[in-house]
């Protein structure tokens, strides 16, 4: 069985798409020198410890065993495993669950076996979070509080609420049995609290940011509790690292994909759609949207010049969005590049039965399968977009399992690092996110953020003047 994921970029080029919107080979070749330079930079930065995500596939086996052992010990005691975290501390786990667990894992006891129900509420919506609390039997629940900084308002609020509930129902001494903290070991309030309460902890390496952390304990602990093969996930990432060890643009899928996105952006395709044709990959698209948006949306470049760059990532799902967004992609402005995710083999086949032979408009479906229908819909949409001169490319997964998903995560992370160099920006910071967090801290009265509160009070933005 072929295990390598593939990148098909033919529909990016003039031969298929026409010269008005299509690229040509020379445009790629012209960037080879630059690619050599970036390749050297990435290798050097990795050696200097600045590319933490590239170290994750090669992390110490003992650390993985610790994760596995912890999950194995605790799994039998619990019915619910709940991640408290947001953004990069939640989206990787959600992507893993949707991709690799049964779609109805939480309600199907027949497929769950010894795996707990899995919840990643992510948001702090009071209705949703409150409803989850109502549903959980706290005695059989383990909360994994994930926060690299150890101070994010949403995550710490979720922690304070669940902590109180556990104390009220089970007593303060049981906090250590119902919480685990995944956080920076060097700084932050969460590590301080965990030590104080005797809560076990797992580390988030200092050089790995939230959106690049899915292959760190952030995603791996979740994977271990979910019963996934986390060794295979890492093995897939190593496999992709090897495939991307060349500077040759035509042979390095991460670099080629990044460059094509960059060239399309320069030609006015400033929106990048991630369009999986498998429901299982829907939340990988969500994870990727954050990776792309937070890493690439930047005001200034490395030289401090104001650039305000960043492709807008859009998430779609086939075939659902054929009946929603595709009309816009086909006929709207030529400002998008479409990235299909295609799956060759689904793990099950569902046949469409023969019926209503006398009604031609329905009977033609009989004898086909949902698999064939979904794959055909992708091919048809791809062809129609290509005929309409809409640039598009496809990442093909032989099947969805840990190995191919590990490859995909790593490919998309490395391409983000590479395109960041083309834009000459720092992909690993997020000053815009920090600014919003600081205002929130100020408004909520956190010490040290009084200045943000003063700015907020003085700001005309929250006057009622324009509210109708
Ligand atoms: O990717 C990022 O850095 C962010 O999305 C963070 O993951 C998010 O803001 C949560 O931060 P923290 O893990 O520090 O609570």
Structural description of this entry:
The chain has 468 residues and is an alpha/beta fold. The protein has 2 domains: 6-30 and 233-423, Glucose-6-phosphate isomerase like protein, domain 1 (Rossmann fold), CATH 3.40.50.10490; 53-228, Glucose-6-phosphate isomerase like protein, domain 1 (Rossmann fold), CATH 3.40.50.10490. 48% of the residues lie in helices and 13% in strands. It is built from 21 helices and 12 strands. A 5-stranded mixed beta sheet has the order 1-12-11-7-10, sandwiched between helices. Strand 8 (298-300) and strand 9 form a beta hairpin. It is globular, with a radius of gyration of 24 Å. The mean pLDDT is 95. Residues 86-89, 147-149, 152, 155, 209-211, 294, 430, 433 line the site of 5-phosphoarabinonic acid. 5-phosphoarabinonic acid binds next to loops.
CATH superfamily of the largest domain: Glucose-6-phosphate isomerase like protein, domain 1
Bound molecules: 5-phosphoarabinonic acid
Tally of structural domains: 2
Distance between the termini: 61 Å
Whole-angstrom Rg? 24 Å
Structural class designation: alpha/beta
Instruction: Using the coordinates shown, work out and report the CATH topology of the largest domain.
Output: Rossmann fold
* Average pLDDT metric: 95
The major sheet is characterized as: 5 strands, mixed
Write the layout of secondary structure elements.
Elements: E1 6-8, H1 14-17, H2 25-29, H3 32-47, H4 52-55, H5 61-75, E2 80-84, H6 91-100, H7 109-112, E3 117-119, H8 126-135, E4 141-147, H9 153-170, H10 175-178, E5 179-183, H11 189-197, E6 201-203, H12 217-225, H13 230-243, H14 253-266, E7 271-276, H15 282-296, E8 298-300, E9 306-309, E10 312-315, H16 326-331, E11 336-345, H17 360-363, H18 370-387, E12 392-399, H19 402-423, H20 431-443, H21 450-458
The chain binds 5-phosphoarabinonic acid.
């Amino acid at each position: 069985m072929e295990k390598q994921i593939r990148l098909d970029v033919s529909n990016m080029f003039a031969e298929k798409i026409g010269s008005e919107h299509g690229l040509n080979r020379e445009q790629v070749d012209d960037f080879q020198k630059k690619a050599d330079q970036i390749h050297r930079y990435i290798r050097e930065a990795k050696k200097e410890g600045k590319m933490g995500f590239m170290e994750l596939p090669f992390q110490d086996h003992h650390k993985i065993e610790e994760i596995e052992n912890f999950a194995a010990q605790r799994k039998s005691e619990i019915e619910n495993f709940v991640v408290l975290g947001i953004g990069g501390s939640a989206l990787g786990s959600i992507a893993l669950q949707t991709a690799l667990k049964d779609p109805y894992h939480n309600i199907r006891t027949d497929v769950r076996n010894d795996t707990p129900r899995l919840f990643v509420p992510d948001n702090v919506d009071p209705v949703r979070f409150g409803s989850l609390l109502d549903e959980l039997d706290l005695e059989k629940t383990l909360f994994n509080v994930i926060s690299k900084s150890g101070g994010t308002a949403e995550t710490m609020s979720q922690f304070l609420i669940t902590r109180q509930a556990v104390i009220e129902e089970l007593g303060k001494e049981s906090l250590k049995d119902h919480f685990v903290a995944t956080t920076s070991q060097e700084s932050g309030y969460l590590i301080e609290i965990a030590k104080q309460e005797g809560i076990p902890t797992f580390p988030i390496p200092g050089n790995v940011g939230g959106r690049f952390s899915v292959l760190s304990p952030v995603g791996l602990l979740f994977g271990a509790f979910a019963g996934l093969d986390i060794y295979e996930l890492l093995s897939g990432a190593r496999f992709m690292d090897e495939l991307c060890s060349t500077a040759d643009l035509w042979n390095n899928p991460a670099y080629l994909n990044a460059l094509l996105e960059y060239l399309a952006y320069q030609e006015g395709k400033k929106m990048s759609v991630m369009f999986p044709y498998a429901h299982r990959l829907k939340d990988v698209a969500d994870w990727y949207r954050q990776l792309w948006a937070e890493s690439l949306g930047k005001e200034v470049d490395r030289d401090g010049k104001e650039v305000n760059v960043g492709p807008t990532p859009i998430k779609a799902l086939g075939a659902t969005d054929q009946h929603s967004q595709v009309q816009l992609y086909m006929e709207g402005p030529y400002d998008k590049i479409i990235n299909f995710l295609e799956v060759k083999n689904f793990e099950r086949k569902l046949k469409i039965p023969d019926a209503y032979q006398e009604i031609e408009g329905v009977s033609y479906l009989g004898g086909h399968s949902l698999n064939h229908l979904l794959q055909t819909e992708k091919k048809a949409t791809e062809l129609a977009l290509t005929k309409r001169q809409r640039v598009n490319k496809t990442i093909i997964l032989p099947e969805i399992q840990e190995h191919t998903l590990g490859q995909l995560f790593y490919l998309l992370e490395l391409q983000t690092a590479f395109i960041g160099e083309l834009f000459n920006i720092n992909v690993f910071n997020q000053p815009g996110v920090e600014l919003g967090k600081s205002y929130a801290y100020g408004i909520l009265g956190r010490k040290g953020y009084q200045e943000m509160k003063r700015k907020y009070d003085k700001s005309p933005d929250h006057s009622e003047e324009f509210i109708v």
